[in-house]
Amino acid sequence: KRIQDELRISQADLERRVEDRTIAIRRINRDLRMEISERKKIERDLQQERDFSQSLIQTAQVGLLVLDPQGKILQMNPFLEQMSKYHLEEVVNKDWFEIFIPDSSRTELKRLFSHALQDSPTKGSLTELRTKDDQIRLVEWYDKSLKDLQGNTIGLLAIGQDVTERKRNEEKVLKNAAQAEALANIAARINAKLDLDTVLQNICEEIARAIPSLPSSSVMLMDGESGQFYFAATYGAYSGLTNEISPIARSMYEYQIEKYGSTFVVPDIRDKQYFSDPWFNKLSRLRTVVSASLLHQGKLIGVLSLASHIDPYIPTADELAFIQALANHATIAITNASTERKVLRMVRVT
């Protein structure tokens, strides 16, 4: 009986232990399920964040670049691929500066890169980027160093915005404003006096100064009796040609205007396709010549010419339009001064 009582006590104790252990296991299982559930939720949240971040990287309309501390390419997003014409597979683990940065800017960019790795401010730095097809784009960069858990720098994240068109538009606006101011100043000066010789000389000086790449200028006017063009005023390398070149037949200019338009460019005066040998010999000190017709009431009264020295210079479409605008102002000033001269002559005769 005593043994049976001990067995019952022992069994009851065992059952209590089992029950306690079962409760503990249930509690542990419940805690594990909660932990697993929480972990899955965290993983889902992290995955959503990764997906969102990846989506931003893939669709961002700015270039995203990751470099290691040596400047090797680790990552670049599709926008930067499109901008640079390179695919990531072509350039991954290669030197960013050797591939994308022109020689003239490389030293300065490497210096900025070193500063950025040390958390020095380099935000908004404007740099040139050389594309695969050898074009140059202007990119504004914003940098952020990347750290590991111990705070060590492991790379650089750079966000770049292509500002090429914006800069071109800004330059164009500034250039147009400068040209408008120059036109106003030139118009004021060449119309300040009605003495024809003074007006002609002022025209040559002001126009040559307005376009530094074409520092020589001349005005040729048509002689009403002979129908030939003669040098009425010169500036720069044109000076001295007045006596060297005989009057030019009107038909030659009319041919040039008919063939090339009222404003035409001779890229290199040494190219004999434009002029005969005597012309070539006397104009060899010049290179590019730009001529704009002086038209009054539809009639050709003269030609305004600008020229470069030593090296050819092909003006842009904006510069050609500016030259023609200058020629239009010059035509008005010349016409007014010529009218004044005729009036004075008539007064003297009377």
Tell me what the structure shows.
The protein has 350 residues and is α+β, with helices and mostly antiparallel strands. The protein has 10 helices and 11 strands. A 6-stranded antiparallel sheet has the order 8-7-6-11-10-9, sandwiched between helices. The chain has a 5-stranded antiparallel sheet with strand order 2-1-5-4-3, sandwiched between helices. Strand 6 and strand 7 form a beta hairpin. It starts with a helix and ends with a helix.
Radius of gyration over C-alpha positions, nearest whole angstrom: 40 Å
Strand order of the largest sheet: 8-7-6-11-10-9
- How would you sum up the major sheet? 6 strands, antiparallel
Order of helices and strands: HEEHHHHEEEHHEEEHEHEEH
Low-confidence stretches: none
Element layout with pairings:
Blueprint: H1 2-59, E1 63-67, E2 73-76, H2 78-84, H3 88-91, H4 96-100, H5 103-117, E3 125-130, E4 136-147, E5 153-162, H6 164-190, H7 196-210, E6 216-222, E7 228-235, E8 248-249, H8 250-260, E9 263-266, H9 277-283, E10 286-296, E11 299-309, H10 317-349
Antiparallel strand pairs: 1-2, 1-5, 3-4, 4-5, 6-7, 6-11, 7-8, 9-10, 10-11
Helix pairs in contact: 6-7, 6-10, 7-10
